[in-house]
Design a protein that fits this description.
Number of helices of chain B: 11
Largest sheet of chain A: 4 strands, antiparallel
Strand content of chain B: 15-25%
Strand order of the largest sheet of chain A: 3-4-5-6
Largest interface: A-B, 27 and 23 residues
Radius of gyration of chain A: 15 Å
Oligomer: heterodimer
Order of helices and strands of chain A: EEEHEEEH
Distance between the termini of chain A: 23 Å
Distance between the termini of chain B: 43 Å
Structural class of chain A: mainly beta
Helix content of chain A: 10-25%
CATH superfamily of chain A: Folate-binding superfamily
CATH class of chain A: Alpha Beta
CATH topology of chain A: Folate-binding fold
Chain lengths: ~100, ~425
């Protein structure tokens, strides 16, 4: 079971309290009608799916119920950090 | 390749079965191939087999970072069925079942395909209605599927709990009789043996680190841990690692990789006659010929390449199984494991050409790739050999995520995702 730190509650809690919400930092287009099919495809469906550090969203569903972001290594499943939604994407170098 | 028969078995028994020849050589890479397949699972080995047996292309290598059949081919719960809702899926999976039926004879290798049937349990009025619609849709597509009442379900699977006060009462079920199981390892071995006999090189313990392209953009070959290997065409059949491999060629796919877990019990005497699936409680179960109950779980909620997965999901799966089969609630589980599956947004596979000339991909099988092994391999080989899709896999392009022509089994499939 993963142990996940909620940056709002400032507590490290079991995975069962959280739900995964996919890749983070995917920005919804400001002018949707100006998007090409290819841009929509990328926005909707194409994911980095990296083998290594992954920027992703989690939700503390059975707690404060808020969304936050995390960096997790998808090879070890170890969380490198978690941070509040809206905060800038942390530099990977600073997490080593 | 020595042919297996009752006579050869008898002959070799006289020498204590010590003189069987190797089934395929442990090949080292040549400088150049007509086709390189990345990934020596059932799908990749099968594609090499059909390339060599049906398209006359024998200068082929199948390259794997580990041992053949050591990925998801050796980690799945061996279920075969074709009761998918949509026309495109029904054709593809039923094509596979057609090939399964004769596969042992074709390969001269016993893949232990067992037509034991797959029963999908309905626990709610909604289940009953959607399963009946499903059955009609399947029958219109020529896929066998029929409705069983609660009593008929009990008759078919005597250890099923059909009492009315069950938390999830069984209100009937959809039975596909042509569904069943097969020996997963044997599928990889049978295809490997058949392909090697026709001249295909199977190169194990050789990781493909990158796909290299020519200045004109077309595929040039693959970089591996044993050096560069030139190829006219490259087919990627790397399951959970497809994203990683394809990104080296500059192709980004609509895939995410998740752990999928399974577990087996201690072996017991034959008690379970078929495959049973229950979407409402999310359980699926069958019994192997060794006697173990083979139990499949769902994917973990997060993407991962860890080949492990979390225990909460196993607990949930066991809870579901003992709900439907209280008889098993004191059985001990022997082992559990995980594989990494590549999941597409519409939960249908991609067997397709790519924007890169000479590069082809067979991926996105998610949680249900084993059953499709022969059909996927056959149509993938066709696509590579002719540089155009077989009519059966033509809808399974990667462009559908741009055009919107999804094959949305995510909402429709006969399994909960």
């Amino acid at each position: 079971m993963l142990l996940i730190h909620c940056p709002y509650c400032d507590e490290t809690l079991p995975e069962a309290e959280f739900t995964y919400a996919g890749e983070a930092h995917i920005v919804r287009p400001l002018d949707p009608s100006a998007q090409t099919d290819e841009q929509w495809e990328t926005f909707m469906f194409i994911r980095r799916n990296p083998k290594g550090p992954h920027y992703e969203r989690w939700r503390h569903l059975h707690g404060c119920a808020r969304y936050f972001n995390a960096v997790r290594d998808t090879v070890t499943d170890k969380f490198l950090t978690t941070y509040k939604a809206g905060e800038p994407r942390p530099d990977l170098e600073s997490l080593k | 390749m020595s042919r297996f028969s009752a006579l050869s078995l008898l002959k070799h028994s006289l020498s204590g079965h010590k003189n069987w020849s190797k089934q395929w050589p442990d090949s080292q890479p040549k400088a150049e191939y007509d086709v390189i397949i990345v990934g020596a699972g059932g799908h990749g080995l099968g594609a090499a087999y059909y390339l060599s047996s049906q398209h006359g292309i024998t200068n082929v290598a199948v390259i794997d970072k580990g041992w053949l059949g050591g990925g998801n081919t050796g980690r799945n719960t061996t279920i075969i069925r074709s009761n998918y809702l949509y026309d495109e899926s029904a054709r593809l999976f039923d094509h596979s079942v057609d090939l399964w039926e004769n596969l042992s004879q074709e390969l001269n290798y016993n893949v232990m395909y067992s037509r034991r049937g797959c029963l999908m349990l309905a626990h709610t009025v909604h289940d009953v209605q959607s399963f009946k619609r499903h059955i009609h849709s399947n029958r219109l597509n020529g896929v066998d599927n029929r409705w069983l009442t609660t009593e008929e379900c009990k008759e078919f699977v005597p250890c099923l709990n059909t009492s009315r006060d069950a938390r999830y009462p069984v209100m009937g079920g959809a039975l596909q009789e042509r569904a069943g199981t097969a020996r997963h390892d044997a599928v990889a071995w049978g295809y490997a043996r058949g392909a090697a006999a026709r001249g295909v090189d199977i190169i194990q313990n050789c990781a493909v680190t990158a796909i290299r392209r020519n200045p004109d953009g077309s595929v040039a070959g693959v970089e591996t841990s044993k050096g560069f290997i030139k190829a006219r065409k490259v087919g990627v059949s790397a399951a959970g690692h497809t994203s990683v491999v394809m990104q080296t060629a500059g192709v980004n796919l609509p895939l995410e990789s998740y752990p999928l877990q399974a577990l087996v019990s201690e072996p017991v005497k034959p008690i379970f006659p078929c495959v049973v699936m229950s979407n409402a409680v999310h359980a699926y179960i069958s019994q192997s010929d060794k006697g173990e109950l083979v139990i499949g779980s769902g994917t973990d909620q997060y993407t991962s390449y860890s080949q492990r997965g979390g225990l909460p999901l196993i607990e949930h799966t066991i809870a579901a199984i003992t709900e439907v089969f209280p008889i098993f609630n004191r059985m001990r589980m022997l082992r559990k494991w995980g594989g990494i599956v590549d999941v597409t947004p519409d939960r249908s596979a991609i067997i397709s050409k790519t924007p890169v000339g000479g590069l082809y991909v067979n991926c996105g099988w998610g949680t249900g790739g084993f059953k499709a092994t022969p059909g996927a391999a056959h149509t993938f080989a066709w696509t590579i050999a002719k540089d155009e899709p077989h009519p059966i896999n033509a809808p399974f392009t990667m462009e559908r995520f741009r055009t919107g022509r999804l094959i949305d089994e995510a909402a429709a499939a006969a399994v909960a995702h």
